[in-house]
């Protein structure tokens, strides 16, 4: 059975993302492992050592109580969406979230990480906003980030952002397999600078990969990469964006698009990040 890891902080954004995790699990016959990671509070008082054990006990107890209260809520979400047949297990861990995700990836054969993220206005100061981008960058897994205000809809139009290079082919094949599960159309999009010369064009290979499938290949020239992507998402009614993680800070740049662009797609379109 496939496995989906679902890191959660029990926020509304996280609960909203849980619906996507359930739908994905149902589609690919997977189980879900929910994961809540907490840390001890930083204590700055002088001579606090005699109280430290008591503080930690209270912290552990409160985290356990919170987790115990939240688990039935996740189960209710599954029942409300007629997905209570999906197997769900729960993990409560003391530690650093990224480190603990890395550990669980080693011990369990995790196929996807699904998590919520918050909007651009509060990205830097929100737990899930900063963590989602860090997970996308640092964790070598397929990560599906679900924006806070994204209401679930069937995945019918999937956008794969690419440079049509050989190194994009393996991630593309994963997207292709997922699209088959969802019976979705794939639009592949390359955004190129008008001044860029394409010395190595592998379009013939990509045309061959797409032949006989519900796939369209696009190339658009322009300097405003993010703006072009946003307009494409809106025009083609895209309901999931997939991309190969090339650059360590790419997602931070993408998530911090100016609100003046009006179409901050991370607010309403899920993003699938695929590592090399």
Automatic annotation (TrEMBL):
<dbReference type="Pfam" id="PF00582">
    <property type="entry name" value="Usp"/>
</dbReference>
<comment type="similarity">
    <text>Belongs to the universal stress protein A family.</text>
</comment>
<feature type="domain" description="UspA">
    <location>
        <begin position="1"/>
        <end position="146"/>
    </location>
</feature>
<dbReference type="InterPro" id="IPR014729">
    <property type="entry name" value="Rossmann-like_a/b/a_fold"/>
</dbReference>
<protein>
    <submittedName>
        <fullName>Universal stress protein</fullName>
    </submittedName>
</protein>
<dbReference type="InterPro" id="IPR006016">
    <property type="entry name" value="UspA"/>
</dbReference>
<dbReference type="InterPro" id="IPR006015">
    <property type="entry name" value="Universal_stress_UspA"/>
</dbReference>
């Amino acid at each position: 059975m496939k496995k989906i890891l679902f890191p959660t902080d029990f926020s509304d954004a996280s609960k909203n993302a849980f619906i996507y995790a359930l739908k994905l699990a149902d589609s690919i016959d997977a189980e879900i492992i929910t994961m809540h990671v907490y840390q001890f509070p930083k204590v700055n008082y002088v001579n606090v050592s005699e109280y430290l054990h008591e503080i930690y006990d209270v912290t552990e107890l409160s985290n356990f109580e919170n987790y115990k209260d939240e688990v039935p809520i996740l189960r209710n979400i599954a029942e409300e969406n007629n997905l209570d047949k999906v197997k769900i297990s729960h993990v409560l861990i003391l530690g650093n979230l990224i480190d603990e995700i890395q550990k669980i990836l080693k011990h369990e054969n995790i196929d996807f990480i699904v998590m919520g993220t918050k909007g651009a206005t509060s990205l830097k100061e929100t737990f899930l906003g900063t963590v989602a981008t860090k997970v996308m960058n640092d964790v070598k897994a397929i990560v599906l980030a679900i924006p806070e205000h994204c209401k679930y809809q069937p995945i019918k139009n999937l956008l794969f952002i690419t440079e049509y290079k050989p190194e994009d082919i393996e991630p593309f094949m994963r997207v292709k397999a997922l699209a088959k599960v969802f019976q979705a159309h794939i639009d592949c999009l390359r955004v190129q600078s008008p001044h860029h010369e394409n010395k190595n064009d592998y379009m013939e290979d990509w045309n061959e990969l797409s032949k006989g499938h519900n796939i369209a290949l696009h190339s658009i020239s322009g300097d405003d990469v993010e703006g072009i992507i946003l307009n494409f998402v809106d025009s083609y009614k895209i309901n999931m964006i997939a991309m190969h993680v090339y650059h360590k800070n790419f997602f931070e740049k993408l998530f911090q698009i100016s609100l003046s662009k009006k179409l901050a797609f991370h607010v309403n379109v899920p993003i699938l990040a695929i590592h090399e």
